[in-house]
Design brief:
The complex is a heterodimer of chains A (about 180) and B (about 230). Chain A has about 180 residues and is mainly alpha-helical. Chain A has 8 helices and no strands. Chain B contains 7 helices and 9 strands, in the order H-H-H-H-H-H-H-E-E-E-E-E-E-E-E-E.
């Protein structure tokens, strides 16, 4: 698979994960390295038969990457990087990775989704829950909301983003109303 | 753990925010390893988070949070909008002045849409007795000037507002710009950028407070800056 095809695959399957790693770690290189390592380790597990069902590959990659992210953000002394230099060279070829510009596309997509929410309070729910990472109970208390309303708003936003992904809609297109 | 529980308890978003207990996390990971379709849910939630982070960095998030006019008011609003189309068209053709204060230097662009170069990054400190916490030199050509300040109060949620005010010789202040929705860096500093093309030499005060709706909305940290003219 050439670099361009790899970049497309990574963007489609793991664009959000990679961008989240970049944001949480504030280190583009480290984020790419963590996702690379997750892909390499998963493929080794497929070869050795530890993962028998190919449909499970993305879930294993996601779990490995999230565990590594947690190690880096929770521990003062992060774990050693274990990926071989050769594997890194192959996977970290910059042209094989979605550009940071992909995040701009996500910005456009989320802006469109938020603009379709008419109530300011409902938009605030989305900001506090997904951006500020405030827990549901606190948001409902601070905004004087019924939990049911919180659930409805979050479900709607999640559904719209999921629909966009399911349709295979490129992230550089808006979600039409 | 089952799908109902995952949806009802917003497990996906909380997993990405590292808010689950160890037991919840292990149960959720076991679930999604057996139900790989959950990866799409996680990818969608990750994109929502990153998109919002981008909107915040671009200084758009506050505007997006503004109320939308109620339905009964919309025809009137549309009529009003139509009435000002002419004005809007006229002003659209004129170059719009870039703001003097922005959340990120990357949003300051020249007429061709190219980001302005960053002249320097200044870390501004609080100082006693009215002395300056930072000496900023205006570059000779339009540049972004990056500033970093450390609020004295931690806002929950972590969002801050900065007011830039010009001080005259009698110490009277005139607000020049306000920007909200600012997220601090991991080291606690809040970053903004000045547009040198809109900034005059003189004395300024940066007032940093928690954004509206945060725990530190009424707490203010002030920083004095001296902006020197270009050499």
């Amino acid at each position: 698979m050439d670099n361009e095809a790899t970049a497309r695959l990574i963007e489609r399957q793991y664009g959000g994960l990679l961008a989240l790693l970049r944001r949480k770690l504030r280190d583009e290189q480290l984020a790419a390295e963590i996702l690379s390592q997750a892909i390499v380790v998963t493929s080794e597990h497929v070869k050795t038969g530890r993962i028998a069902d190919a449909a499970l590959i993305p879930a294993h990659i996601f779990r490995l990457a999230m565990n590594e992210l947690r190690s880096h953000t929770r521990l003062a002394d992060p774990p050693n990087r274990t990926l071989s230099a050769q594997a890194l060279d192959r996977l970290l070829s910059r042209s094989a990775w979605p550009a940071v510009g992909t995040e701009i596309s996500m910005q456009r997509q989320v802006r469109d989704i938020v603009l379709r929410i008419s109530a300011a309070k409902d938009r605030e729910i989305i900001r506090r829950f997904y951006l500020d990472e405030v827990e549901k109970d606190a948001i409902c208390r601070e905004l004087a909301l019924l939990p049911l309303r919180f659930d409805r708003v979050v479900f709607r936003v999640r559904q719209r983003m999921r629909d966009a992904l399911t349709r295979g809609e490129p992230s550089n297109q808006g979600v039409s109303s | 753990m089952d799908r109902r529980h995952i949806d009802d308890h917003h497990i996906v978003a909380r997993y990405l925010a590292d808010q689950l207990t160890d037991a919840e996390r292990e149960a959720f990971e076991a679930y999604y390893l057996a139900h790989p379709e959950m990866v799409n849910e996680m990818e969608a939630a990750a994109r929502i988070k990153v998109g919002l982070m981008q909107l915040q960095e671009a200084g758009e998030i506050e505007r997006l949070m503004l109320p939308v006019a109620p339905r009964w008011l919309r025809p009137a609003a549309a009529a009003a909008a139509a009435a000002i189309v002419g004005i809007a068209l006229a002003t659209f053709l004129l170059p719009q002045p870039a703001p003097v204060l922005v959340a990120s230097s990357s949003t300051l662009v020249n007429r061709r849409g190219t980001p302005l170069p960053v002249a320097a990054t200044y870390t501004i400190f609080r100082t006693p007795n009215g002395s300056y916490g930072g000496e900023v030199e205006l570059p000779g050509t339009p540049h972004a000037i990056a500033l970093r300040v450390l609020p004295e109060y931690q806002a929950q949620p972590a969002r801050y507002r900065i007011v830039l005010a010009r001080l005259d010789d009698d110490d009277k202040s005139r607000d020049v710009a306000t920007i909200g929705g600012l997220a601090p860096a991991p080291d606690g500093f809040v970053a903004v950028a000045l547009n040198s093309a809109r900034l005059e030499a003189g004395r300024y005060r940066l007032s940093v407070s928690g954004d509206e709706g945060t725990s530190a909305a009424t707490h203010v940290s002030t920083f004095l800056i001296h902006v020197r003219p270009a050499r």
